[in-house]
Amino acid sequence: MDWISLLLVPAIKSLVVVVALLTGFAYLSYVERKLVARFQVRYGPNRAGPFGILQPISDALKMVFKEEIVPLNVDHVVYLLSPALTVMPALVIWAVIPVSGASFTLFGQTITPYVSDVNVGLLYILAIASLATYGIVLAGWSSNNKYSLLGALRTSSQMLSYELPMGITLVSVLLIAGSLSLVDIVQAQRGVWFALLQPIGFIIYFICGLAEAGRSPFDLPETENELVSGFATEYGGIKFALFFMGEYIHMITISALATTFFLGGWYGPFVNQIPVLGLVYFLIKVAFMIFLIVWIRASLPRIRYDKLMHFCWKFLLPLSLLNLVVTAVVLVLVG
Amino acid sequence: MSDTTFEKLRAQFPDAVLDVSEFRGDTTATITRETFLDVARFLRDEPDLQYDLLVDLTSIDRRDLGIEPRFVTVYELYSIPKNHSARLKVPLPWDNSTEMPQCPSVAAIWPTGNWHEREVYDLMGIGFTGHPWLHRILMPENWVGHPLRKDYPLGGEPVYFSSDRDNPRFAHLGKPIMEGPSYPSKLPDDVDSETHLVINVGPQHPATHGVLRLAVELDGERIVSVNPDIGYLHSGFEKTGENKRYEKFIPYTDRMDYLAAMNNNLAYVLTVEKLLEVEIPPRAQYIRVILAELQRIASHLFWIATHAHDVSGTIHSLLMYALRERERILDIFEMFCGARLTTSGMSVGGLRQDIPGAFPDAVRSFVSEFWKRLQDYEAMLTRNPIWLSRLKGVGILRAEDAVALGVTGPMLRAGGVPFDLRKAQPYSSYDHFDFDIPTATEADSYARYQVRMREMEQSLRIVEQAVNRLPEGPFCTDDRKVAPPPRSEIDLSMESLIHHFKLYTEGYKPPVGEVYGMAENPKGILGFFLVSDGTAIPYRLHVRGPSFVNLQATDLMARGHLLSDLITIIGTIDVVLGDVDR
């Protein structure tokens, strides 16, 4: 293994993933605004460019050129660091997500459709996902604002709570697939998607994913109507945009992971004959999940904070444990 | 006040009643200050009387009337079980010293008196002995003087219709006419800001729908107490009204509860008409009912839109749907009077103009479509488990607490009291229509939601009946002393020309006297108290805003709940700050 395949190829692949995600984030915000607008009998952005497709660019420019305002009594280092801490984990998770099944050869190098196939990929994902909490907690704490603090406290407890049922559900997936590697998990779904084998697990994972990403009806970290803007109250300009970016990339990530764990990843009809279809199927599935998330946002009220915790600890957690036990027993019986 | 009330009062307190007078069906008893609290308690507790609702509490500065003593407090009482009302006046002897005149506080008898007395203290400078926390409520804490006193200078800047900036007479422009140093607002003494977190919800906060500040004392996320701080939008409507002719105050009423302009118009013109004793032709009455009920629907639509938005956060869908329907009502208003929000659609004596020909059909098509839309909203919310979990059991306001706090409208009816002025004291021919008063028993936020949804249905029924049975005839009274003659008459009749000239130069001059007028607004009872000194300008004009009174119940409803519930609770109060601060 030479230095090209060790360093250069992963670096280029990481760059491609990051650029794709940032563009994806920008256009996800556009698509969401358009979709939600249609749900709400509005037009949505339609001024910048044809059908408003340049809207994300103008938004980004606006955010970048906003005056940099840092409140007086904040903890400077932490305050400036926390937006980056929020975005980073959402990006880093993508290192292990396989977007297609087929490798291809370019300049004599075999390029695999993932940055790296870690053999503990699932654990890696759970570990990195937990890190995202830090950005939000630190933002809330360093802002020196009561609303931010309350928002941050809510977020941390919410994220920590929902990681448990999510992790347990993923253990069921692990039991069936027999591997922690994401590539192996997808390949185990060659015949049947895990969403069909694990319907309850899929639903639990989806709900936890919504809560993890802070999406409606679990968007308590922001709760604009109670806590003004939650942890992000004191942030403006590009710093706010980073939080926003974190949330949206998180949403893409959650959808991609749902696709990988439950919807058969890149598998679909004729994917063995035409390998490039794998990527298309993967993207379609991710887009479908994102559409679901946006749809939910347009139609459901927000859960109250204490009910959210009750729901997690008294319902989701026992259910996921039960699901795990049943899965294990059935696996032993079937052999 | 019925005769029996008056006799009983005389029998019980022979020395207390100084005078009893009657004017336009309102009976007023003047009570001595010393015996007043006993009289009040007697009126509330006597089984035959049961004046359980203190509708309004205000005061008059009689300096320019030349009556001694100068200050008098006025209590408008109403009995929900007996459906009768009475007015008490308590003259306050005062030696013109720098000390304020003093009046005993009724806050212990009718808790609603708390804020009313603070308002009187603030604006009129009357002290209330025994009041739990007598501080300014509408004006800033450091305000000098009491604006509603007749000797308070009117002030203001002259307006020059030129832009010559070098002219020395503009030197004062852009400078404040009064010193306005920042001043920390006071929190009640029992707020513990050392061990609890005190958080300011407002005055700039997404969920308060206006400049309402709630100083919330939190233990974790649990609410220990809520202290509303109001007055940010106070614009002195009462003082303005006391310097304008009667009919010129109508546009101001639009701007009080700006989501229910038609209802405000109606309540005000009804009060002036009561003072003038004019007959309103049936056609005008029916059109007023149609407009008022459409406005009620529009107001409730705005409520459900913003409430769903507050509770849910990101779903703006219902907000958009409800506003879409409200837009159609505003279109109908525009068709009628050209304005959408601040309509000033009614005038004393009837309406400003007749409805256009397309009006009934526009109303009918709205009604038939809205029945279906209402089902959609119900489908989105009524049995939605998240919606239920956010509203059920939150912000309970029992009927007895509601009455004691003077809370009226849907909030009272959600506690199971079927009290609606449209039924209890029908005005503007509401008794011609067949409709029900929706009530609920749970008294929580969900009950209030249900009551308002049902009320929209009942309003639709009223509108349907009124538009189908709309009588022919004039759209305003033919009393030329009140309403201007039609344009066609002015060319032909010298008398009409004179009436027209007199009306627009002098206005009408009601007889000396005082009346209290009430109407059922979407948010509760809107009351106007008018004192006429025989000129074309009201001597005293007082407004009882339903939101002002209802807001007082926030603390009681929110204690022990979570911060998230506070948003639900403010939402179900359906507060409009224009109405609170006036």
List keywords for this structure.
heterodimer, A: mainly alpha, two-stranded antiparallel ribbon, globular, B: 582 residues, alpha+beta, Beta Polymerase, domain 2, Cytochrome-c3 Hydrogenase, chain B, 3-stranded antiparallel beta sheet
Report on the structure:
The complex is a heterodimer of chains A (335) and B (582). Chain A is mainly alpha-helical and 335 residues long. Chain A has one domain. Chain A has helices at residues 3-39, 55-65, 76-92, 121-142, 146-177, 182-187, 194-197, 199-213, 224-227, 237-262, 277-299, 305-334, and strands spanning 104-106, 109-111. The mean pLDDT of chain A is 82. With 582 residues, chain B is of the alpha+beta class. Chain B folds into two domains: 3-129, 2-Layer Sandwich (Beta Polymerase, domain 2), CATH 3.30.460.80; 237-581, Cytochrome-c3 Hydrogenase, chain B, CATH 1.10.645. Chain B has a five-stranded mixed sheet. A three-stranded antiparallel sheet of chain B has the order 8-9-10. In chain B, helix 6 (261-276) packs antiparallel against helix 7 and helix 8 packs antiparallel against helix 9. The longest helix of chain B is centred in the middle third of the chain and has 31 residues, at 282-312. The chains are: A mainly alpha (335), B alpha+beta (582). Chains A and B meet through helix 5, helix 9, helix 11 and helix 12 of A and helix 7, helix 8, helix 10 and helix 19 of B.
